[in-house]
Amino acid sequence: MSRIIAGISGGTPLASVPGSGTRPTTDRVKEALFSRLEALGMIARARVLDLYAGSGALGVEAASRGASTVELVETDAKAVGVCQRNARTVNDAVGRRAVTVHRSKVQGFLEKTLEGQHWDLVFLDPPYDLAEASLAAVLEALAPHLAPDAVVVVERSSRSAEPAWPEGLGLLSERKYGETRLWFAEPVAGDRGASDPDATVEA
């Protein structure tokens, strides 16, 4: 059973999505991911967007660790119900509505996002069968809505190619954990950003 790892709700079990329609992030990968994000100072008071949220595990983890606001975007009805239950768990713990759930397709949600609305931290954990062109279109729609110091985390199969970053968004680093690869990107000036010296790390 998945759980919230740390923060005000640390140790709390999470409701999971029944069936095989989603691919939850393992606790091992989640712990490594959040350790890195906290080292970068990306969690506390952050405005967080969790796309293809599944159970909402990444978003509610961020809320438990001190994110200011978290928005979960998911289209599957069963997954949305699970997101709502997990959101209530964290909202009750923090004493406010830190987590909001949106039932929507990701592309549609981004297209309706108001001009001037920006996020500091964005998670994208799309189904592995999502076409690379579709992922590229989502990243392009997302890019105008990132804060200047934002970080975008894309979770894919370790066999997947690097995402096609749109203008204004470039690779920061990547990490590989078994069958999972995490791509970290950031807003950049120009077409591409330079990755860090140890961009590819296998754990």
Automatic annotation (TrEMBL):
<keyword id="KW-0808">Transferase</keyword>
<protein>
    <submittedName>
        <fullName>16S rRNA (Guanine(966)-N(2))-methyltransferase RsmD</fullName>
        <ecNumber>2.1.1.171</ecNumber>
    </submittedName>
</protein>
<dbReference type="GO" id="GO:0052913">
    <property type="term" value="F:16S rRNA (guanine(966)-N(2))-methyltransferase activity"/>
</dbReference>
<dbReference type="InterPro" id="IPR004398">
    <property type="entry name" value="RNA_MeTrfase_RsmD"/>
</dbReference>
<dbReference type="Pfam" id="PF03602">
    <property type="entry name" value="Cons_hypoth95"/>
</dbReference>
<keyword id="KW-0489">Methyltransferase</keyword>
<dbReference type="InterPro" id="IPR002052">
    <property type="entry name" value="DNA_methylase_N6_adenine_CS"/>
</dbReference>
<dbReference type="InterPro" id="IPR029063">
    <property type="entry name" value="SAM-dependent_MTases_sf"/>
</dbReference>
